[in-house]
């Protein structure tokens, strides 16, 4: 009996000691949820985003503090597969099981639109780096979603630059629209057509086509554009469909300038592999390497060391989203979500793309930027629009024809 009493007393004492000792050993930690498309039709862009986030975290971690306390950053990766249902599943796990401090990422506007309510309901800050739909900012403003932020250039920023470049540089009389059947794709088409109506009413839109993501064959659309005499094709298909687009454009010899919004096609790795087929095409790269801030060049070098390529716009956007979010947590001096959201909304952040600042909640927590359009010349990217930026780079637009297939 005495031995049993002694054992029970010892166990109770150990439990009590552990209870009082636990706080002394508990370590403050930031759990950053990173939502990227690591599999599926857009895995190429997901890999770029992942590397960008890694560079941001690796640059901050050695000296990172919250409220003066050195704080480790744990990145928890979630693959949304570019699918709404999968995105909802991984977000549910992140919010209810892993209990992330804040989240960054998301490529697809359709996926992000599906999950953004979950972050708001959980009072967990989320910064989408790469979802471009205008509907996101509109929903944020209308529903007063204080925890949701859109760092990505919007469809308006991207489409306006591309269609203006086409009208200014190539001056076609007939254009066709080709986009994916997504929120962003419909935004791209609508914005481009509105811009043409207001600024170049003499340019006729002869077709407006939407295709599924990852479409394996674009022959029907390209053949139609050729029959209709389109002189330029404005919009984008990306991921596994992007190489198909340029290859079949060459095979069918469609005499129309491709003007691509940039997803997948803007990456150095994509141009290195498909540059010959892309010859003469316009691509919105959004961003070009340069010294925008003291963060820019170290980021570029770290990314090159990690991947062997210069960072794509999506790598930079993902990097900046992670950097901005982690800076906001540090500035807030707390992992309290309301304080982090307030720091995101009020802060000015030094990032690779420049000094970044979100618009107020009433304006959708957006982060407007100017975007840059290049032309593929001799298999490489040459800045052609805006023309003042092109002049500063010592490059200019080369009229087409000759077409890519005529140069082989």
TrEMBL record:
Keyword Signal carried by entry: yes
Keywords annotated in UniProt: Amino-acid transport, Signal, Transport
InterPro entries assigned to the protein according to its UniProt record, in alphabetical order: BCAA_transport, Leu-bd, Peripla_BP_I
Leucine-binding protein domain boundaries: 29-379
Signal peptide (residue range): 1-26
SUPFAM superfamilies in UniProt: Periplasmic binding protein-like I (SSF53822)
GO biological process: amino acid transport
UniProt record similarity statement: Belongs to the leucine-binding protein family.
Cross-referenced PANTHER family: LEUCINE-SPECIFIC-BINDING PROTEIN
Descriptive protein name: ABC-type branched-chain amino acid transport system, substrate-binding protein
Upper taxonomic lineage: Bacteria, Pseudomonadati, Pseudomonadota, Alphaproteobacteria, Hyphomicrobiales
């Amino acid at each position: 009996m005495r031995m049993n009493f002694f054992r029970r007393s010892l166990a109770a004492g150990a439990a009590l000691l552990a209870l009082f000792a636990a706080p002394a050993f508990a370590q403050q930690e930031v759990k950053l949820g990173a939502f990227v498309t690591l599999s599926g039709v857009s895995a190429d862009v997901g890999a770029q985003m992942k590397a960008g986030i890694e560079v941001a975290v690796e640059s901050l971690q050695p000296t990172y503090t919250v409220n003066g306390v050195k704080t480790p950053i744990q990145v928890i990766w979630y693959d949304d597969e570019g699918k709404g249902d999968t995105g909802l599943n991984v977000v549910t796990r992140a919010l209810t099981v892993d209990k992330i401090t804040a989240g960054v990422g998301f490529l697809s506007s359709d996926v992000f639109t599906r999950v953004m309510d979950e972050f708001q309901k959980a009072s967990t800050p989320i910064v989408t780096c790469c979802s471009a739909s205008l509907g996101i900012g509109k929903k944020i403003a209308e529903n007063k979603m204080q925890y949701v932020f859109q760092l990505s250039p919007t469809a308006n920023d991207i489409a306006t630059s591309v269609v203006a470049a086409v009208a200014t540089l190539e001056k076609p009389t007939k254009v066709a629209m080709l986009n994916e059947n997504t929120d962003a794709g419909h935004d791209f088409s609508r914005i481009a057509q509105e811009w043409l109506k207001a600024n170049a009413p003499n340019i006729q839109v002869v077709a407006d086509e939407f295709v599924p993501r990852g479409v394996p064959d674009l022959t029907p659309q390209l053949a139609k554009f050729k029959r209709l005499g389109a002189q330029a094709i404005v919009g984008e298909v990306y991921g596994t469909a992007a190489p198909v687009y340029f290859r079949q454009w060459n095979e069918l010899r469609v005499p129309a300038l491709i003007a691509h919004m940039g997803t997948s096609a803007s990456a150095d790795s994509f141009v290195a592999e498909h540059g010959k087929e892309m010859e003469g095409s316009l691509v919105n790269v959004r961003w070009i390497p340069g010294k925008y801030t003291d963060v820019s060049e170290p980021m570029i070098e770290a990314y090159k060391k990690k991947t062997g390529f210069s960072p794509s716009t999506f790598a930079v956007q993902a990097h900046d989203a992670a950097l901005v979010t982690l800076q906001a947590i540090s500035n807030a001096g707390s992992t309290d979500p309301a304080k982090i959201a307030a720091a995101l909304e009020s802060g000015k952040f030094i990032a690779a793309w420049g000094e970044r600042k979100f618009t107020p909640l009433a304006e959708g927590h957006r982060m407007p930027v100017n975007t840059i359009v290049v032309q593929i010349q001799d298999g490489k990217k040459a800045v052609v629009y805006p023309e003042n930026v092109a002049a500063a780079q010592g490059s200019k637009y080369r009229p087409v024809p000759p077409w890519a297939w005529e140069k082989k």
